[in-house]
């Protein structure tokens, strides 16, 4: 399950309130949350890929957002972000292919690690540099 920060005003989806409930104004708050989650994913790893952005073409729904990514090898993917994790849904930007049955990855790091050797190298080097900096700070 992906972690999300929720403000106390947001209601979980399983509150049992009906469609005609007074709480229907709260519906849709998750849409923004999944888009925010997608933006956070992009900001986390943008430095290690050629291009990455939340799709403005594909619809964000209560439980899903789409992210376009181009690896340093110039391969393009459209990723689906849900509570289950991230998975490739097409081999181009702003597309989904229902026939594609790719596995879910719990993290964007794991997904990109499986798709892009160059991502793995850049991310690993960044990690090493941070560790070196920490080591210097402690001496």
SS class: alpha+beta
Uncertain segments of ≥5 residues (pLDDT<50)? Answer: 1-26
Q: H/E order of the elements?
A: HEEEEHH
Q: Give the CATH superfamily.
A: Hypothetical protein (hspc210)
Estimate what percentage of residues fall within beta strands: 15-25%
Shape: elongated
Give the domain tally: 1
- Mean pLDDT across the residues is 83
Model description:
The chain has one domain (34-137): Hypothetical protein (hspc210) (copper amine oxidase-like fold). It is elongated. The chain starts with 28 loop residues before the first helix and ends with a helix. It is an alpha+beta fold and 139 residues long. Mean pLDDT is 83; it is low at 1-26. It contains 3 helices and 4 strands; from the N terminus they run αββββαα. Strands 1-2-3-4 form a 4-stranded antiparallel beta sheet, with helices on one face.
Quickly describe the structure.
By secondary structure, the protein is of the alpha+beta class. The protein contains three helices and four strands.
SSE layout:
Layout: H1 29-45, E1 51-54, E2 65-70, E3 76-82, E4 85-90, H2 108-115, H3 117-138
Antiparallel strand pairs: 1-2, 2-3, 3-4
Organism: Halcyon senegalensis
GO molecular function, one term: protein kinase A binding
Pfam families: GSKIP_dom
Task: Output the keywords.
single chain, 139 residues, copper amine oxidase-like fold, 34% helix, 17% strand
């Amino acid at each position: 399950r992906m972690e999300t920060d929720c403000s106390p005003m947001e209601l979980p989806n399983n509150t049992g309130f009906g469609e005609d409930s007074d709480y229907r104004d709260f519906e849709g708050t998750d849409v923004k949350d999944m888009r925010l989650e997608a933006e956070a994913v992009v900001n986390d790893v943008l430095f290690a890929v050629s291009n990455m952005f939340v799709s403005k073409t594909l619809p964000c729904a209560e439980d899903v957002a789409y992210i376009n990514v181009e690896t340093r090898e110039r391969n393009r993917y459209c990723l689906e972000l849900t509570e289950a994790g991230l998975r490739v849904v097409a081999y181009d930007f702003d597309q989904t292919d229902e026939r594609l049955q790719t596995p879910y990855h719990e993290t964007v790091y794991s997904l990109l690690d499986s798709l892009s050797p160059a991502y793995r190298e850049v991310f690993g080097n960044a990690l090493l540099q941070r560790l070196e900096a920490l080591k210097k700070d402690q001496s």
